[in-house]
Design brief:
single chain; about 350 residues; alpha/beta; Aspartate Aminotransferase, domain 2; Aspartate Aminotransferase, domain 1; three-stranded antiparallel sheet; about 35% helix; globular; binds pyridoxal-5'-phosphate
Length: about 350
Amino acid sequence: MSRVFNFSAGPAMVPEEVLQIAKEELADWRGSGMSVMEMSHRGKEFMSIAEQAEADLRELMAIPDNYKVLFLQGGASSQFAMIPLNLLRDKNQADYMLTGSWSKKAIAEAKRYSEVNIVCGADIEKFNTVPDVSTWKLNANAAYMHYTPNETIEGVEFDAIPDCGDVPIVADLSSTILSRPIDVSKFGLIYAGAQKNIGPAGLTVVIVRDDLIGQVRESTPTMFNYEVMAVNESMYNTPPTYTWYIAGLVFDWLKRRGGLSAMAEINERKAQKLYNAIDKSDFYANPVDPRYRSWMNVPFTLANADLDASFLEQAKQAGLTTLKGHRSVGGMRASIYNAMPEEGVDALVNFMADFEKRQA
Ligand SMILES: *Cc1c(COP(=O)(O)O)cnc(C)c1O
């Protein structure tokens, strides 16, 4: 078996240890005589898998008891609609920070259901910083304030949790969940598609405070109602059972690695290595304000864009794949989620230095 270091933004790498366990258990899960993908979601075997996964996620993120954890389908993109439908309640105003491509999409969807107040970013052309907090226009009457702590495409990460008084904070953590500890109690709702830092695509984790559930808009589809999903423990219909199982294996792997504080240390070190390599060279550049550089997604450009294709080709030969930047940004992007081993970052840094030397 030969595995590459895959720098894809998503679907992204899954820890090799997890893949090995899944392989061993693929056709016969722990003596059950079945694969997890063949099990009834209501049978005791799968119920135990589902419960353990939730318990482990609660432990990892220290999720308070007054929050529900939902395991849904439809991707983070479905949450762009579910959030206004469920959280607007008797209001018709919502606050959104505009910091990059994903928050922009969330805003476009919210506008179908609500008035949207852009807290900051309306006048930004290139998303490579977060406007200073003194310029933000928060609305105390907003039903909630939505933001994207890590903009996956631009590589902008905003680590501080905004202060919004009594207005519930909603965060799209798709590309940064589990990369470092966060204080869940500061949020009304957190959501994340699984395919970046959790596991395979097809699962969306939603962590929502109890008091925000149950006041959905009348016309909301049943499948989009958090209350229906919460009352039915995410099993109103058939949940994404196999993905849920793999997510559980990833949570267990994270616990064995020392939890989120340990991951934060590793992630910060991995990111620093890569940013240092970029900053010390005139050949590579990262356009993001150093205060808001992402630990997870590192875009960078070559001084001469004509070399992009040969950079990508040679990187691939060296076992470093999917480094092409998002089409809207160009250049390169290295996504270095939890499952990217530190050796993968070391290999990339070495390759970059070599490639630069060969151009001289
Ligand atoms: C990838 C991503 C999404 C979209 O996720 P899907 O699961 O494909 O809908 C939304 N927000 C952020 C921050 C992302 O990185």
